[in-house]
Design goal:
Blueprint: E1 6-11, H1 17-26, E2 32-36, H2 43-54, E3 60-64, H3 69-74, E4 82-85, H4 87-96, H5 101-114, E5 119-124, H6 135-154, E6 157-162, E7 165-168
Parallel strand pairs: 1-5, 1-6, 2-3, 2-4, 4-5
Antiparallel strand pairs: 6-7
């Protein structure tokens, strides 16, 4: 099945989201764009970022966009496939910077609609567990849920990853 204009890949930690998203993009002709939203604040996160980079070939061009994701999407050359990894880190960055999440989400949705090539968005599904005990964690969970709902409504394909297995939701 050809890759649609917008695909959302959701799943828990270590569910295989990133690997699956990379495989979807790599099924298309290179070059590919990888928009990374992570920020390396500690050694553990630096190691995670290094692991992701090490498994990507030279055909990937990495763009770091911890907060300027819509702008990064708009800067991608026409027709190039794009992978964004990940939306929950982007959302964390926005919340901690006290940005307006509704405005940022609207800008992301518009950038996805305007894109001239396929986009695969990766995000952590965080709403399946217990209600977090603190207000910041509850806000994050709620904002992530709202973001996923909006993007899923716009996406032509939604995949939920479980134990490395893709489950087609839409």
């Amino acid at each position: 099945m050809p890759l649609p204009p917008l695909t959302l890949v959701l799943g828990g930690a270590r569910s295989g989201k990133s690997r699956h998203a990379e495989a979807l993009i790599e099924a298309l002709p290179a070059p590919w764009v990888y928009i990374a939203t992570a920020q390396a604040y500690d050694d553990e996160m630096r190691a995670r970022i290094a692991e992701h980079r090490a498994r990507r070939s030279q055909d990937w061009r990495t763009v770091d966009a911890p907060m300027a994701l819509p702008e990064a999407l708009r800067a991608v050359p026409s027709g190039q496939p794009v992978l964004v990894d990940c939306l929950t880190l982007w959302l964390t960055n926005l919340i901690l910077a006290e940005r307006d999440i509704a405005i940022a989400t609207g800008e992301l949705m518009a950038a996805c609609r305007e894109a001239q090539g396929p986009i695969v968005l990766v995000s952590n599904e965080v709403g399946l567990g217990i209600v977090p005990e603190n207000a910041l964690a509850r806000r994050f969970r709620d904002e992530a849920g709202r973001l996923h709902q909006r993007l899923a409504s716009q996406a032509e394909r939604v995949v939920f990853m479980v134990a490395g297995l893709p489950m087609q939701v839409k």
